[in-house]
Amino acid sequence: MRRFHYAWVIAAVTFCVLLVTAAVRATPGVLMVPLEQEFGWSTAAISAAIAINIALFGLIGPFAASLMNRWGVRRLVLCALALLTASVALTTQMKTQWQFTLLWGVCVGAGTGITAMVLAVVVTNRWFEARRVVVLGLLSAANATGQLLFLPMLARFIQAAGWRSAALAVAGISALVFVIVFVLMRDNPEDLGLKAYGWTPSAENVAATKPLAPIPALRLALRSPAFWVLGGSFFMCGASTNGLVGTHLIPACHDFGISEVRAAGLLAVMGIFDIVGTTASGWLTDRFSSRYLLFAYYSLRGISLVFLPHTLATGGVNLNWFAVFYGLDWIATVPPTVRLTANAFGRENTGVVYGWIGASHQLGASLAALVAGTLRTVMGDYRPSFWSIGALCFLTGFAFLFCKQALERTAKTRTPELMLA
Q: Quick check: pTM over 0.85?
């Protein structure tokens, strides 16, 4: 462990993959206003394509974890990056709404689904024994930060040269990451004659245990109270981040006379502080109760969303403080959620079960993106969406104060259940 270990190269490459593919998936958020202006498409129509994108991103995740075990991480990630590069480049030629839905909804959703949050779980479980939760927190932050960090650059591209230039820039970055993965990524430490970072002989039995396939894992999970608690809370996590703020903050700012570049800058601030918040959450998860951490994260997030319409109306420095706070809390929920998943279902099944929990996250994001866009089209206002999702996040936080027995009962009984499955 004192010498440099190739696991850190793998972590860095995975960080780049998650950063860029998340940026690709989030790009329609900054394209919403230009597409409305050029093609006359409604917010609801564009939101429907984004909802398909987000839903596929989540639903493919569990199967991606299984395919990584069968075909290898490197091969699957290269296929995903190739699909993303081609789809985004073809976007510049689209003329109709169904082409937007196909390219940004179906193709980009499928490509990013392969590199979903489950990729971080698979990589950390294969390459790290020590520092696993901290590395997972950092990689999870990359997944969220990529959605936010590139948006100011894209907004300036759009302002200076049009949205097609922004799409070509995103395709070029995706192609660059393809080359990085091709050169540096490896599937397992054993491919280089290594053991996982911090490996000890006691970890050998866990590594040798065969994980469940996606459908058997889902059947097992659905019988577990822990899955409903974690999946339900992650549903609200996705609704309040990717679905609502990540997709609709820029058009919501536009409604209050705030420029797209300024709004994209706010999302970038969230992305920067998300790295700090999620990495710190990994550190805290190693030291404090995951339930109490999740209570704090969800309840504070709910309060901030309830007051967001007032913050947008006042503008100024208050919006900057909102961006800092919301960024710190953006995906801070991931490390404690993964820890509770591993406790409940076993480390060998963490990737595939967490893939289904992540699917719940993206279904929540998909529904929130669609509903918020529809309410904006029908009512001309985002405030009902901010208030309702904020209140539900607050209630989700308090649910973790009462779920201790369900989580502990699942943890105690998981070994016999897995044997029967």
A: no
